[in-house]
Hints:
heterodimer, A: 207 residues, alpha+beta, Chemotaxis protein chec, 8 strands, 27% strand, B: 163 residues, CATH 3.30.1330.200, 5-stranded mixed beta sheet, 2 helices, 10 strands
Amino acid sequence: MGDIKFNNLNEGHLDALSEVGNIGAGNANTALSQMLNKRIDMDVPSVKIADFDEVSGVLGGAENLIVGILVNVKGDINGMMIVAIEKSSAHKLVNMLMGQELNELDGYTQMDLSALCEIGNILASSYLSSLSAMTGLAMEPSIPHLAIDMAGAILSVPAIELGKVDDRVLLIKNEFLEGGESVMGNYILLPDPPSFNKILTSLGAAE
Amino acid sequence: MKDGKVIKVGMADLNVAENPDKLMTLGLGSCIGIVLYDSAVKVGGLAHIMLPDSTQIKNNSNLAKFADTAIDVLIKKMVEVGARQTRLVAKLAGGAQMFDFKQTSDEMRIGYRNEMAAREILKELGIPIVADDTGSNYGRTIELDTSTGILTVKTINHGLKEI
């Protein structure tokens, strides 16, 4: 255990990690669905071993404007998690939750920002708690942090953190979609190399 | 006058360009865009670095990832195409703190540490920093026009400027 490197991650490992994404995203979607009282659809997860340049492009391009809520993950599993919501979708999400009719050109109030941050927090916590239950591994989310900016700039934060140990990054990404209002976003989990090893071992998929 | 092509520089990457080409890097967050320029021969260089110091990191083979090693490589590449180190000037952009981490230990203020490292190294090399747009909490896209040496800095909510 503990020595699966990027170079020897095989299809079986990637399948297992994509299942991790499905479980986490499924649980987060249930929470979102309950908050909005609407059905949330889930796309096929993608597990990527990305170099730094690819990382900045995974959310619709480096300059794509997104709302990103980031939590640091500590415990048996270390890394970061980002809930990313398209800027236009974030507006619809706030409107649905706060019962308002603001259009995209309106700025956010402090209350709107707090609401968005809390949504991200709930989704990230739901994702991580189901993962923790499945693997028996502890993963504690930090308080949530919010930024509204270019996707590349936001993704530079986990890229740098994980860049301290390697030249590539493993990311597990699930897209979520609320059909009626077309609210679109992504969950991205970025575990460090020892952590994805632990996840694989706990699932009996480390061979 | 012919328009130059735009050469994109990714994260942990660097490149050089000659008049009339442009060098661009998208969505700088806590990373720093280090721009070097020799106006006599209109040669420019751009490094998109992620971390301040290669000597603090075990896995440091990617020279473009660190401020110390990237600046060295960038100068060598520029000299190969006719630039002279004594004529170089520098411009810096990026180094933002994208998230308001409450526990602002130095460890988390990586944007600031990147900026300080770049400044220190350029000072040691005697390369003056003639313009900068660094810090704060927002992302930047930058483009160097090697025909003029002007660096354009684009942001989402903080306008566009030429430095």
